[in-house]
Design brief:
The protein is an alpha/beta fold and 207 residues long. It has helices at residues 35-43, 79-93, 114-125, 150-159, 164-168, 192-204; strands spanning 8-12, 29-30, 33-34, 49-53, 68-69, 99-104, 129-134, 137-146, 173-178.
Length: 207
């Protein structure tokens, strides 16, 4: 029996992708499919549902049939704004989900036990939040967030807080640590050459 209810997944697709040359990074092709597909395939079985956080015309994500929610703040303030948008959407539309999991859409190797590990880390540490780490480096954008912190986060953003670590430092946070010896499960794609490297890795080790 699960100790925690399944959270809502919030796919953070609101970035400007400047290092990739602009445009929608999750729509870039990897192994013949959009990056977004790879993330969804790994995460859908672990979650109660998924929403896409993206600004601009939502029609470009219509093929996925998921709710598309924009930031509630102007001028692309960063991933914390996407986390807040996800919290507010969950509070209004997914009452059975006390938590959200924030997910970048440029990480095609996300672990298939990610949600369970985040929940266990938070529970064992009696913490408020949880994020992941690999190879000695934390990845705060991949995190487990209680929806009840929405008002607190909204206040922090209004104060000018933009870095995830600056907000999470106000709360108890647990870390779910992963091995990165063979392949870092949180490898992300920021530049065209990184996308090409991931494509090569998939060809060499498709599993």
């Amino acid at each position: 029996m699960r100790a925690d209810p399944l959270p809502l997944g919030v796919l953070l697709a609101g970035g400007l992708a400047r290092r990739m040359g602009g445009g929608d990074k999750p729509l870039r092709s990897l192994a013949g499919r959009p990056l977004l597909d790879h993330v969804i395939d790994r995460m859908r079985p672990q979650l109660a549902g998924l929403v896409i956080n993206a600004n601009g015309d939502p029609a470009r994500f219509a093929a996925w049939g998921l709710p598309v929610i924009p930031d509630t703040m102007a001028d692309n303030p960063g991933p914390l704004a996407g986390v807040l948008a996800g919290m507010l959407w969950a509070r209004a539309h997914a009452a059975a989900c006390p938590d959200i999991v924030s997910l970048p859409t440029d990480t095609p190797f996300l672990p298939e036990d990610l949600v369970g590990r985040l929940q266990a880390a938070r529970r064992n540490a009696r913490a408020d939040l949880a994020c992941v780490a690999s190879g000695g480096r934390s990845h705060p954008v991949i995190g487990l967030w209680p929806v009840h912190l929405a008002d607190d986060l909204a206040g922090a953003l209004a104060e000018g807080v933009r870095k995830i670590e600056d907000f999470t430092a106000r709360h108890r946070i647990a870390i779910a640590d992963y091995d990165a010896a063979d392949l870092d499960p949180f490898t992300n794609v920021n530049r065209p050459e990184e996308l090409a490297a991931v494509e090569r890795r998939l060809r060499e080790t498709p599993d």
